[in-house]
Amino acid sequence: MTAANGTNVLAIGIDAAESTLVRQLIEQDEMPALKSLLADGQWLRVQSPAHIGSGAVWPTFMTGAEPTTHGVYSEWSWRPGSMSLSRYNGRHLTPFWTRPALQDIRIGVFDVPFAQPTGVSDGFEVSEWWAHDTTDAGLQAGPKEILSLVKNSPAHPLSANRFVNTTPNNQINLKELKAACVEGARLRGQLARTLIKETKPRLSLMVFPEIHHASHQMWHTMEPNHPVYNTRKLNEGRAPEPLLKDVYRAVDVQIAALVEAAGSDATVMVFALHGMRPALGFPAFLAPLLCERGFSRLANWRSQSWSKRALSLLAATKRHTPDALKKLYYRLTPTAATHKLARPTMLPAYDWANTRAFSLPTDQYGWIRVNLMGRESQGSVSLDQYEETCGELKALLLGLVNDEGQPLVQEVVRTAANAETALSNPLPDLVVHWLDAAFAWPVRIKDSKVHAEPVGKKSTGQHASEGFCIYRGAHAQDLGGVVAAKDLGRLITESL
Ligand SMILES: [Zn+2]
User: Fold this and answer.
1) Span 262-272, mean pLDDT?
2) Which domains are seen in the chain, by residue range?
3) pTM of the predicted model, to two decimals?
4) How many angstroms separate the alpha carbon of residue 88 from the centre of ligand 1?
């Protein structure tokens, strides 16, 4: 690999832009900047580990490694040593832009999700100016003068209001959210152009997260008649305005200005690592189902200490917690622990000795971890039982049907090929991809007493696996129209 071509590279990620919608908007002349890039360049399909979880894609891009190596699949990671979850902070990942091949090249990096600044002495690094996926680090920027430049720029409208309480059928709210995303994209483009103009990096790498944020909450405005929305009255019978399209257009306008500023001899890449599709919340019945079928057992109430008891009660009643119990919870947990416990309380207290497999908290696919001896500190499944346990789980899941006999599970992905590789596997062992019937509200599982109401019902979009890259430059000729997310960093480096 050399870094001697002397070409400037502008790489722009549009997080979670759906490739089929982008193609459609290009054909309809709604994204003229992308249309013109495509006319002079080529379309590549991007294959990413989105089938494991949306949280895996950016760390894969950043490090050039598979999720089994970098271990990130969610904002929360399972820690087998402590049998608990910990929040992602990104400190253990080494991004490709710190590699020796790029040592003498000035770089600018702006809001790559999950990436932390690496301490460059020129160029710029900004993380979480505004992010859809946040870490516990918050806004960081460097060198010093860049931090003050960023702090003195207008703030992203979504930093004051993330519109998390927006409901799919409240058009007024959705329009406000759309306006904030459109304005956020404009301010982001403006800030990026200022940073690039001030520091003149050879490589500018930036990400627009506004489409990602908007898509989770307004995908139904693009496909209002999709059957997954049938069980719920959205839009009060009226056809909604395709609000999300305006956010795509706003990002395209900013890309036009950035490409123009980069000049006609710059290599330009516009890419998404995963896409979006219709959904309605996500199924959350795996934990009780695994208890019902004897794979997991909750810890005996009496055997727990009184404070742990209060916490596990809180986990069970999280959504309807009476104020008195909330107060008790905050009294029981020191301040530092409160944040850490905010989401992991979704994990009930298990009786590990009698738990062979358990589900991990998710906002997308079903995630199941085998309680493996030699890996989990309180493991109960021996190495030679691993294969059989995975087989039993797979058979259970693929056999799940609703009352009408419709299957609920599309496929079950194994992340470790065998027990030996599972020993060092940081990921959930099984990833459950749901069929549309699993998103019904409510879903009645045949031969089960588990009450299966999906959660996150305000979310009408969920990630699809395929990404794309529009590449205008001289180094993607031999790729055969497809590139892996982990190899995009190499493509960027070779283009410089
Ligand atoms: Zn997402």
Assistant:
1) 96
2) 9-280+461-495 (3.40.720.10), 286-452 (no CATH)
3) 0.89
4) 15
